[in-house]
Amino acid sequence: MSTSLYLTQAAAIRPRTFKLAELLGALSYALDLTEGQPAGHCIRCCWIGTRIGETLGLSDDELRDLYFTLLLKDLGCSSNAARICELYLADDISFKRDFKTIDGSLSSALRFVFAKTGLESGLSERIRAIVNILQNGGEISRSLIETRCHRGADIAARMRFSKRVQDGILSLDEHWDGSGKPEGLKADAIPQISGIALLSQVIDIFHTENGDAAALGEARARAGDWFDPALVEAFLKAQSDPEFWTVLKSADIEARVFAMKPARISEPVDEDYLDDIAAAFSDVVDAKSPFTADHSNRVTLYTDMIAEEMGLDQAHRRWLRRAALLHDLGKLGVSNQVLDKPGKPDEEEWNSIKRHPAESEAILLRVHAFRDIAPVAAAHHERLDGKGYPYGLKGEEICLEARILTVADVFDALSADRPYRAAMPVARALAILDADAGVAFDPNCIAALKTGLAKLNAEVAAA
C-alpha cells in the first residue's frame, strides 16, 4: 500500500467527532514552544488553576471557561516575538522563558534587561537598545502585552469561546494592585479567571524551576500585589491535598487533566469546528514573523488549487487543507533572530530551522484529530532526490499529499517577501520550480499549480 493511499484511508475511517479538551490540550504544546516553556506547561497550568477553581466553588460553566482559558492562555504569545527581538536584540524564546523566572520586582526586571539585551550585538548598538528600553520601558512593556493579549482574545473568539474566556486571556497580565498591563486594571475589575491563570502560570514556572517550596514562596510573596489574596488562599488550600503535587509531577498528568469535569462536559468537535481550530492555530504560527503573515493561508490556497487540478475529491482536499494550515507549527520553536535574519543562517541556526518539520509532526501526533496529517506536515521540506529534511526521504517514500504541499510551500516562499530578499515575480518563481522538476519537486504538481494559477488569473480578469 502506498503512503498516499494509507493516509487517505486513515482520514476516511477516523471518528467523526473529537473531544475538545483533548484536542486543544494536545495543541497547547505548540504554545509552550513559543514561550520557551518545558513541554506540558499549559497542561500543568490547567491542573493547577482548575484545582484552585474547584476550591473556590466555581460553577460548572465558570470551571469550563477557566479550564479552556488555562489551556489557551498563550494563544497570542507568538505575536510579539519579532518585536522582542527587535527591541531587546535577543532570542525571543529564551528571553520570554527567562523573564518569567525573575521575582517580579522592578530591580530584578532592570537587572534582567541589562543582562539579556544585545549580548551578541556591538557595544554601541547594545547601549542604544538599553537606553531606549530605560527611556520607554513602560510603554514598550504595555505595547508588547497589549499586542499579545488582544491577539490571543481574538483567536479565542475565532475558536467560538465565550466572552469570559476571551476576557480571561485579554487580562492575563493584569495585577491585583493595578500595576499590570495592558489596562492597569485593579482588584475586582480583573476577571477572576485571569487572576487564576496568572497565578497558575507563576506556580508552574517556579515549581518546574525550583520545586514546591519556590512555587509556594512566590505565590505568598505576590499576594496583595500581583494576586488577589483570596486566590492565593485557595491555592494554599488546594495544594494541601497530597494529590495536587503528585499529579503535577507525574507522567500521566495529561490523562488526569483530560479526565477533569470541565473536559468531560465540553461539547464534541465536528468537522466544521475542526477546520476553525486548524485555521486559528495557523494564525498563531503566522503571527510569529512579519515575513510569514498569512503564509499558511496562501499555502493552503495553493495546496487546494493543486489538489483540485489533480483530481482529489472534496473530502480528501479538506483533509489536506488542514495539513497545509498546520504544516509550520514547529516554527513556533524557532527564534525570530533566525526566522527574520536578513543574512544567511549559520550552521546552528540552519539546524534549528531544519528541525521545524519534525516539531510540527511531534505536535500533530499528539492530536488524535490531526494524527493522520502529521506525516504530510513532516515531509513538506523533503525532496525527490533525498536531499531534503528532516528525514531525507526520496522518490516514492514521499506521499502525493506531501509533494503537493511542498510545491505550494516553495511557490509561496519564492513569491512573497522574505527578510533576505524581495518577493519574486510569479514567472520567476515558476521557473525555479521547473528547474528542479523531477529532482526536488513533482512535475505533475508543478503543472497542476500552473493550470490552477492560469484559471485564477482568468477568473480575476473576467470579474
Q: Which descriptors apply to this entry?
A:
463 residues; mainly alpha; Hypothetical protein af1432; 2 strands; globular
Unreliable segments (pLDDT under 50, ≥5 consecutive)? none
DSSP helix count?
Answer: 25
* Rg (CA only): 23 Å
Beta-strand proportion:
under 5%
| Major sheet size, sense and barrel closure | 2 strands, antiparallel
Helix share of residues? Answer: 55-70%
Oligomer: single chain
What is the general shape?
A: globular
SSE class: mainly alpha
Span from first to last CA? Answer: 44 Å
What is the topology, as strand order, of the major beta sheet? 1-2
Taken in chain order, the helices and strands follow as: HEHHHHHHHHHHHHHHEHHHHHHHHHH
Describe this entry's structure for a reader.
The chain is an all-alpha fold and 463 residues long. The chain has 2 domains: 20-268, Hypothetical protein af1432, CATH 1.10.3210.10; 271-462, Orthogonal Bundle (Hypothetical protein af1432), CATH 1.10.3210. The chain contains 25 helices and 2 strands. It has helices at 3-13, 20-35, 41-56, 60-72, 81-88, 92-99, 106-116, 123-158, 163-170, 192-210, 212-221, 229-239, 242-249, 253-258, 261-265, 271-286, 295-309, 314-326, 336-339, 347-354, 356-366, 374-378, 400-415, 426-435, 443-462; strands at 18-19, 268-269. It has a two-stranded antiparallel ribbon with strand order 1-2. The longest helix has 36 residues, at 123-158. The model has no long low-confidence stretch (mean pLDDT 90).
